[in-house]
Amino acid sequence: MRIDVVTIFPGYLAPLDDALVGRARRAGRLDLRVHDLRRWATGVHQAVDDAPYGGGPGMLMTAPVWGAALDEVTASGEGAPRLLVPTPAGPPLTQQRVAAWAVEPWLVIACGRYEGIDARVLEDAARRMPVEEVSLGDYVLAGGEVAALVVVEAVSRLVPGVLGNPASAELDSFAEGTGGLLEAPAYTRPERWRELDVPEVLRGGNHGAVARWRRDRSLERTAAVRPDLLDALVARHGPDAFD
Ligand code: SAM
């Protein structure tokens, strides 16, 4: 899979050389390219921003710079990529969206800064490729780079061959294997630590009992923290979802 990230702060993406994503890159499973948007800026100051029409505080990233960058980056491979645009004004990032993107051959992520990007950039790109806005949550970051890190990491771990044991992703919180619910609490050795014991059922070797215990704890946890996920499960599978 190929992912291009366009940003005015390429150094912000340095962690993508480390850990799981770094290994996936070195193993050739992930072709990750980071581009400095200023390469496409013209003029002595290499400005990428200007004052917004209609007034208001802050600056906006300009259409000609982003247009030139996206034209070149999206013409550098086969077919059209899917363009992802981080913005607090977009629909939220979910594991379902991540899973859909993980089977795409090519993603491009456009990182905004300042007050964001001239709206015509997305309108224009949508004439040639699928475009999706994505929000990390109901808060405002200073730029899209952190969102790009999040998307790249979440997508990469679903790319075949990236996780050592692919089954672990199937049983994560939000995954199909857990019915889209939160994962049950987990424990490892030692059995007793600071007078706290690992639940007995997990030590007994009865796989059916372990599966039931995990499902019950998953339901409890989800009901307490994210009741909306239970509603979504019922909406998908009907009232028999818990059988
Ligand atoms: N004026 C914009 C608004 O109110 O919707 C906020 C712009 S924000 C200061 C600058 C950039 O940070 C955005 O263009 C986007 O790339 C990124 N950003 C900020 N918050 C984000 C969030 N919750 N999710 C994804 N990206 C975000």
UniProtKB/TrEMBL annotation:
Q: Which residues make up the binding site for S-adenosyl-L-methionine?
A: G112, L136, G137, D138, Y139, V140, L141
Residues in a coiled coil are none
Instruction: Tell me the ranges covered by the tRNA methyltransferase TRMD/TRM10-type domain, including all copies.
Output: 1-231
Q: What is its EC number?
A: 2.1.1.228
Q: Which reaction does it catalyse?
A: guanosine(37) in tRNA + S-adenosyl-L-methionine = N(1)-methylguanosine(37) in tRNA + S-adenosyl-L-homocysteine + H(+)
- Provide the Gene Ontology terms for cellular component: cytosol
What SUPFAM superfamilies does the record point to?
Answer: alpha/beta knot (SSF75217)
**A Gene Ontology MF term for this entry?**
tRNA (guanine(37)-N1)-methyltransferase activity
NCBIfam families reported in the protein's UniProt record: PRK00026.1, trmD
PANTHER family (alphabetical): TRNA (GUANINE-N(1)-)-METHYLTRANSFERASE (PTHR46417)
Describe its assembly.
Homodimer.
What does the UniProt record say this protein does?
Specifically methylates guanosine-37 in various tRNAs.
Q: What is this protein called?
A: tRNA (guanine-N(1)-)-methyltransferase
Organism expressing this protein natively: Actinomycetospora cinnamomea
Lineage of origin: Bacteria, Bacillati, Actinomycetota, Actinomycetes, Pseudonocardiales
